[in-house]
Amino acid sequence: MRKALASILSAFFAACLAGASPGLSAEPSAGQKPNIILIMADDLGYEMLGCYGNKAKLTPHLDRLSDSGMKFERCYSTPLCTPSRVQLMTGKYNHRNYIGFGLLDPDETTFADMMRQQGYKTGITGKWQLYGNERQRQLAGGKIGTLPADAGFDEFCLWQVDTLGSRYANPTVYTGTGRSVTLEGQYGPDVFNRFALSFIDKHKDEPFFLYYPMCLTHAPFEPTPFSADYRDDWKEDPKYFNDMVGYMDHLVGNVVHKLTRLGLLENTILIFIGDNGTDKNITFEANGRIRKGEKGTTTDGGIHAPMLVSWKDHIAPGTTSGSLIDFTDFVPTFLQAAGAAPDAYPGLEGVSFYPLLSGDRSKEREWVFCHYEPNWGNYVPKTFALDTRWKVYSTGEVFDLRKDPDEKTPLSPEQLTGTDRKEVGKLRQVIKKMYQ
Fold first, then answer.
1. What is the pLDDT of residues 362-420, one digit of tens each?
2. Is 25 inside a domain boundary?
3. Is residue 189 one of the residues assigned to a domain?
4. Quick count: other Cβ atoms within 10 Å of Cβ 350?
5. Beta strand pairing call for 208-213 and 35-41
6. Distance between CA atoms of 381 and 4, rounded to whole angstroms?
7. Which residues, at least 6 apart from 30, have a Cβ–Cβ distance to it below 8 Å?
8. Is 221 helix (H, G, I), strand (E, B) or coil?
9. DSSP SS3 for 101
10. What is the dihedral angle through the alpha carbons of 175, 178, 184, 189, rounded to the nearest 10 degrees?
């Protein structure tokens, strides 16, 4: 029955997305600000999606989303969840404002603050993890994080705000009533997805900004409602990871279905990304190689995020971009889409990829920078800059990513030609200027 239903839904979404006609201009209709939905999966590296070469074909809805819009091949996050989220939400690199794991500096202005100032209704659902618990505050020298209402969000339904609890079965959910509650007999990702769909429905006649940082596919690896033993006695096991990826994809499909049914695809920029690489306990096959997740590391598998953008009648379907993107770029992109003045928010460090959506590469970024200071677990702090070929660490290591994508062997100065040294020197200067 489930397979038959999946087949029917697949056919429906294919028909919906096939109707997207190629557009030459990433501009909203006259007088209309586009809605913006940013969906971010948790601990999902790019190679887990079928459109990026995963052999298991777990993501049919996301693969169709790729077919309906633009797939980015070089989007980079930080290797760990909180640093990525802080960078994403503020448009600044982590050495400017990252105060500790599980914390968002309450003095920071977020993209929700900015979008609300641009006339958008703002909502968030899924994982928060930015207010901090006692241990996280202790590690951060007593600093306190931020509650969602103080970060610019009008409406929210979240896990891990004032307490931890479960994100999956019998979830602990915070909705602004002053404390979290446990919802017995429910599945957390379904609760958050229902909020997302309700938010879209509620604000369909006005500009809205929805940030949907999903709880899936982060550990603990537990069965989903699509798993055969969901209601049976079970123990956490990485074998459930594929089910979790599939269910995550199903929930994204629900969002596409809602936008389609309401006729909002033409005026909604829908973006899907991951926050960092896949968990190290997961093994998968992609692009002809057996790989393990690299979350927490600064190698490609730890920082290379999936990124899909769909906007019917504005982005040519089935396009691929090789332009560099990092997580500071989302804030200026959203502001440009909203029609904000370029200098409305000084201090932003990203480069808007809004022009790239219509194929304009005249202002694309030339490098990606990362200041990685996890302040959590046994992860090793590192700083680096990279371009489409070279990667340079602040400690001096240089890698040719075309020949050595896994960073097995750093190059000595003698191995670099004059042109190579010039390009590597540019990246060294990027790192140097970041700390001036």
1. 999 999 999 999 998 889 999 999 999 999 999 999 999 999 999 999 999 999 999 99
2. no
3. yes
4. 22
5. parallel
6. 48
7. none
8. coil
9. coil
10. 30
